[in-house]
Amino acid sequence: MGIHFVLLISRQGKVRLTKWYSAMPSKERARAVREVSAVVLSRQQKQCNFLEYKDKKIIYKRYASLYFLACVDEEDNELIVLETIHHFVE
């Protein structure tokens, strides 16, 4: 499983935590956070928790007022990533 980054974002769009596992310039990091958070926050609650972002996948889950996001490789299993997020929250 290749995790590229993990984000924690509040419902208001404020970034609470970022952890990067692959090298990216700071401008690209800021743009990725902005784009991904805008898409996730605009989605309806009943929509799927998987998104395609460039050549990667964004898997997210909302717990209380925080969104936990993980950016992984396209071929990674979404359910395993959701289970990893759940394990991290516990």
From TrEMBL:
Membrane in keyword set: yes
Recorded hits in Gene3D superfamilies, A to Z, give: 3.30.450.60
Q: Which UniProt keywords apply?
A: Membrane, Protein transport, Transport
UniProt superkingdom:
Eukaryota
Q: Where in the cell is it found?
A: Endomembrane system
Q: Which residues form the AP complex mu/sigma subunit domain?
A: 3-90
Among SUPFAM superfamilies, the record links this protein to: SNARE-like (SSF64356)
BP term (GO), one: vesicle-mediated transport
**Annotated GO CC locations:** endomembrane system; membrane coat
Q: Which Pfam families match?
A: Clat_adaptor_s
Main subcellular localisation: membrane
UniProt cross-references to InterPro entries, sorted A to Z: AP_complex_ssu, AP_mu_sigma_su, Clathrin_sm-chain_CS, Longin-like_dom_sf
The similarity annotation says:
Belongs to the adaptor complexes small subunit family.
Annotated protein name in UniProt: AP complex mu/sigma subunit domain-containing protein
Q: What phylogenetic lineage does the species belong to?
A: Eukaryota, Haptista, Haptophyta, Prymnesiophyceae, Isochrysidales
